[in-house]
Amino acid sequence: MRSSAEKVAYTSVFVCVALMLSYLESFLPYLPIPGFKPGLANLAVMISYFCLGLTAAATVSVCRILLSSLLFGSPVSLIFSLVGGILSLGVLALYGKLMKRVIGAVGLGVLCAAIHCVGQCIAASALYGAPLLFTYLPWLLVLSVATGALTGALTHATVGRLKLIIRSSR
Amino acid sequence: MEKKSGFALFGLGDAICIIAVLLTAAILALSAQIMFSTTDSPILEVNIDGKTELYPLNEDRTLIINENGISLTVQISNGTARIESTTCPDGICRSMGAISHNGQTAICAPARVALTVRNADTGGEPDAIVR
Prior knowledge:
The structure holds 2 protein chains of 2 kinds.
Chain A: H1 4-25, H2 41-52, H3 54-72, H4 75-99, H5 105-128, H6 132-135, H7 137-168
Helix pairs in contact in A: 1-2, 1-3, 2-3, 2-7, 3-4, 4-5, 5-7
Chain B: H1 12-35, E1 43-48, E2 51-56, E3 61-67, E4 70-77, E5 80-86, E6 105-108, E7 113-118, E8 128-129
Parallel strand pairs in B: 2-8
Antiparallel strand pairs in B: 1-2, 1-7, 3-4, 4-5, 6-7
């Protein structure tokens, strides 16, 4: 990045992409498990992490959650998403520090998706006192392997090309 | 043209990640099987914004819950409970279907209402029992 203005501009582009993906997702039916979403918005977070760094990814994630809850969600969905999103950012931070040589895009996508589900289930359990961690989370985890692998693979396919564009626009 | 993204797509570490997540899911599901074995007299725990009401699941009845500006109709019949209708625009809770086994849950997040099936002896301290 040449200047911080450039970084702000690219970050806001990714916030828009994440918001668009959230919006698209809000049309999907809740299948096969109620409350489950493929987490397409996480795609934008992961891509911004690889193109712009952790700070940008955190900005994209938090802005996306605040805006999409405001536009298409409720205060409760805000709490669920925030807990899941912050835990996912934790995974990204750990990945940059420890796991970069060991884990590829697919593994990172799966870990982010899984920890997002764990966070949401913890939030829901805390709010409702229901044993969701045992009855609901296993199914979410199995699905998150599929969706996480998909977002990971898409990230891998996109980042190389995007970096070229960002570099050539200087 | 250079297309390097600077990180791997899939490797041994990724396979381990996937196996670890699936293993966690299996362990959680198994412990749920052990903890929440079925019971002869299950009860429906209705948690409305932090307050708990208990209803026997083997007596048919219709509950109408008005909470947070949302009206929910809960139908208890033949030992199962389901959210029959809701005025909430999402309608996620309706798609949660019928619950009948211990530990199963249906939640309407916007109304802050949670339905949980429990064993009669593990329901905890209720605020009120409705018979």
